[in-house]
């Protein structure tokens, strides 16, 4: 059973807000492109998007407009163009993005522009 198989189109709206932590710890060092977590998504984001689209459901992911997410993964600041091109190549339909400023010495986050 694949991740796409687990998505029931009738319940997709409920699942759209789930945060799965899709990002690897770092970007591709040679291109700067975003990279998916190979443990969570061994077939890649394109394969996941294709499976979801086969169910007739749109596919969206989350990124942060700052340097890092609160999950301590890379944000899009300075990489907006390559991120957009990569997401499009994966078949992403929607991008949810926030500007979150995390304080590394504390456990809380401040969200701006909610």
UniProtKB/TrEMBL annotation:
Name by which UniProt lists this protein: Alpha-galactosidase
N-terminal signal peptide: none
Keyword hit for Disulfide bond: yes
EC number: 3.2.1.22
Gene source species: Trametes coccinea (strain BRFM310)
Domain of life from the UniProt record: Eukaryota
Family to which the UniProt record says this protein belongs: Belongs to the glycosyl hydrolase 27 family.
PANTHER family for the chain: ALPHA-GALACTOSIDASE MEL1, ALPHA-GALACTOSIDASE/ALPHA-N-ACETYLGALACTOSAMINIDASE
Gene Ontology MF, one: alpha-galactosidase activity
Any single GO BP term: carbohydrate metabolic process
